[in-house]
Amino acid sequence: MSWEVVIGLEVHVQINTKTKAFCGCSTEFGAEPNTQTCPVCLGMPGQLPVLNSEAVNKTVLTGLAINAQINLESKFDRKNYFYPDLPKGYQISQFAVPLVEHGYLDIPTAEGEKRIGITRIHMEEDAGKSLHEGLDGVSHIDLNRSGIPLMEIVSEPDMRSADEAVAYLKQLHQLVRFLDVSGADMEKGQFRCDANVSVRRRGEPLGTRAELKNLNSFRFIKQAIEYEANRQIELIEDGGTVVQETRLYDSVRGESRSMRSKEEAHDYRYFPEPDLPPLRLSQQQVDAIRDGMPELPGQLRQRFESEYGLSPYDADVLSQTRELAGWYEALVAAHPSDPKRCANWLANELLGRLKEAGRDIEDSPISARQLAGLLDRIEDGTISGKIAKDVLTDMMADGRDADAIIEAKGLKQVSDTGAIDAMIREVFEANPQQLEQYRAGREKLFGFFVGQVMKASKGQANPALVNQRLKALLDG
Amino acid sequence: MNIDVQKVAMLARIRLTDEEAAELGPQLEQIVGYIDQLSGIGTDNIAPTAHPHDIAMPLRADIVSNGNRREILQQPAPATEAGLYIVPKVIE
Question: Which of A108, A128, B11, B56 is the most buried (most CB within 10 A)?
Answer without folding.
Answer: A128
